Request: fold
Amino acid sequence: MTDQTIYIEVRGEPKGQPRPRAFSMGGRVRVYNPATAEGWKSAIASAALPHVPPMPLQGPLRVDVAFVFKRPNAHFGTGKNAAVLKATAPQFHVAKPDRDNLDKAVLDALTTIGMWHDDAQVAMGTLSKRYARPGELAGATILIEPLLEAARP
Reply:
């Protein structure tokens, strides 16, 4: 991390950006974007607004996002062990939403609030999806860091 690194914590259940949908009406095809991720994108924007620089970030950027999902009840014991995580409970979230759709929702929200000019500036980054640890809330952590261009001979 550098002194220019931006660290954002977002709380809430991560949602992926839905794919555009099409339907036929009166012999015409119409395309629309389902709004199912709008609440999540608003949470991202709210958490990120205090970190938006006075001028949008320039140049290539690295954006790392770690998504944390609430564990289903089936990951826990029953009765007096209802708060105890089963030994067989997975660490990683391997169900929908897909990580590319999760990433798209984050980048779209940050573009909308003016973090950068265009999410095409994001040239590098890591994504992860895992379940919450005991006592941890669902959400995401976002690290944004400018990339320095290597000098070319």
Observations:
- Residues 6-146 form a domain with the 60s Ribosomal Protein L30; Chain: A; fold (CATH 3.30.1330.70).
- Helices lie at 38-48, 99-112.
